[in-house]
Amino acid sequence: MNRDPITFVGGPLDGRVLDVLTGPTGHPPKLYKIPVPATEDSPATTVVYRRVAAGRQGVRQLWRYEYDADGNAETGRLRWPWSKPGPAE
To answer: What is the reported pTM?
Structure first.
């Protein structure tokens, strides 16, 4: 497994570049979840970033993570207005 520098766009990590583990295919995970502990002012939550293509460098695919404010951290699925409600809704 390798580590590739991946850029984060939007949200609390906007503009940061982190080394992310890539799988055997060279792709980073589709979701990057960051647990945020509870504070006096806010409850515990999870920040979700989604992998998107960022172009090519020769034959190699480049990736970046974009902030997903509406994402579902448990399943990683977007909640679209036309989606059927989940079992807990």
So the answer is: 0.72
Beta bridge partners of 7: 17, 64
Domain ranges of the chain: 2-67
SS3 content of the chain, % helix, strand, coil (to 5): 5, 50, 50
Strand segments, DSSP code E, in 10-88 are: 17-22, 31-36, 45-57, 60-67
Above 70 in pLDDT, residue 46? yes
Query: Can you tell me the distance from the alpha carbon of 87 to that of 47, in angstroms, rounded to the nearest whole number?
Result: 22
- 22: pLDDT strictly greater than 70: yes
Q: Supply the DSSP symbol for 18.
A: E
